[in-house]
Amino acid sequence: MRLLENKLTNIIWPKVVKYGNKILASAPIAMLLTIAIFAYELNENEREAAAALEKQKVVTDNLKTIEQSLSTRHIGIFPDYLTEINKLLAETPLSTQDTSMVIIFEDVLFYGAFYNGVAFKEMIVQLAKLANENKKIMIAYYDNNRSSEGRERRDRMFREVIQESWMKQEDLISLAQERTALVQDPLYLNEVRARRRYATIDSIVCEKYFAIYRDEQRKVFSERRDKILIPFYDQTKNDNKLFLRLDNIKNAYLGKPEKDITFYDIYTMYYEFTEQLKLFFRQHNIETLPLNSYLSMSCWANGGKTLFAFPGRFAADEIGFISHDEHILNYIKTMLHGVLSQSKEKHEED
After folding, report:
1. What is the spatial distance between Cα 97 and Cα 302, in angstroms, rounded to a whole number?
2. Distance from C-alpha of 319 to C-alpha of 310, rounded to nearest angstrom
3. Residues 6+ apart with CB under 8 A from 321
4. CA atoms within 13 A on the CB side of 151
5. I need a labelling partner for 329 at 20 to 30 A (CA). Which of 46, 173, 187, 343 fits?
6. What is the pTM assigned to this prediction?
């Protein structure tokens, strides 16, 4: 046994030490080689990833090119497409020919003012700029105020806009049920003239449910009010005084304690906004044409392109599209000619 131990010590161990030292001596080289291989593979992976990203970018760019080349394409939901309206107005040719007339159909003249004030302000500024450059502009909107019947339509439209903009869907259902109940109430049938009955009932019911929304949805109501109260007017930019007047209107009806804000305040604010904008457009030779019937579509045409939006269930979920399709442009012009003909006939009857 002792002889075996001596043999291991004297013969085998020196060899283990010898070759072990060689392995240890070569370890840094092996490590460097491993690192180099790893770095190479990493670099290759990065190159492959970069190539893949570049390929993906090319595909994306191609898709965007195809999308831009489409005659008609989707551009988002209200109020996201308001900025697209301003891009379209900025691209308006300055030719004074009728073919490049700016044609606008809107349900209200303050379109977008209470959802994206910046875009609304830019839209008004651009329209005034185009008008000052002798560009012909016509805005048709739902606001026939020439007769009591027209005022009723406008009043009903304002109420619907307020309901859909400020109330929850379940409140609208309750509102409809409440209206039905009041219509069947003999007191209203006897005391309110039939022609004005629905307007009166709408006003009463709207006040009731607006108050419920205001009190039970305080956080949402406050956020909405604060957003609307953001000023249009910027004194440092020497803005048009129109925006100062609009700010004063907002503050008069929304600047008071929230518990005191009523449905009628919102209605009156909408009405006074409309009157101020009508006056402003008239001063800039922008023709406004009140319509007798509610619009099924809003649109803005600059003579080469048209942006149009179809309303959904509520006032704030319109779906927007932009098009340079000649047939759509001709359709918008046909709509305008039809409205002008009806307006002329109505004027002659009056």
Report:
1. 11
2. 5
3. 72, 73, 74, 75, 307, 308, 309
4. 6
5. 343
6. 0.73
